């Protein structure tokens, strides 16, 4: 898809992978609707984008778990732009604790943001894409959605749910020419770990294999308009789910060792 003049909606846009996606989409000439909760960060990001690129850019301060407010935001986006061409569901967070340590409220909040927020954004964007006769929904899932490890049971569950939702939604939208793509990154060097791993021990232990958010963003942007189902980053991590199916006992032992680094 030629992104010049196309409208891309990015959730969780204020920092990390979200802001990288915004810059690389703007570089391709895309107009941007940026969603996040932190207004100051969104404002600064918009100022930098419109200063560097001749694009249309608006930001919307919204908690994606607030269904009523989110619906209003998507109506505003359709009104202020020429509909929606691409949705990148990037917003999400995790907490690395055991099931016993994690409160039920925290688990519910993860599902509200990572799953129901993503579902709501997808649902609200589909009518506009259908009117255009095509579109693309890109969901930033996680390798945790394919290979769960200890101290990430709730987070991994949310990403399993995202994969299931995406795979079913893809089938529903096949005749509308709306593509649905799952992006499954491994550990990435973003503010995600400030919440997920406040001790810093896990981030330090996986520093050598951490993904560069600029490279991940570049990969995501390059896939827009292509009917790609699933992308594992890095590719070799995707073999983990296949090995689990073939050698469950051995894989489980290896995963325990990896998960205990958290």
TrEMBL record:
Cross-referenced Pfam families: adh_short
UniProt keyword list: Oxidoreductase
Membrane spanning residue stretches: none
A GO molecular function held by the record: oxidoreductase activity, acting on the CH-OH group of donors, NAD or NADP as acceptor
Domain of life: Bacteria
GO cellular component, one term: membrane
Family statement drawn from the similarity comment of this UniProt entry: Belongs to the short-chain dehydrogenases/reductases (SDR) family.
Identification of the protein by name: SDR family oxidoreductase
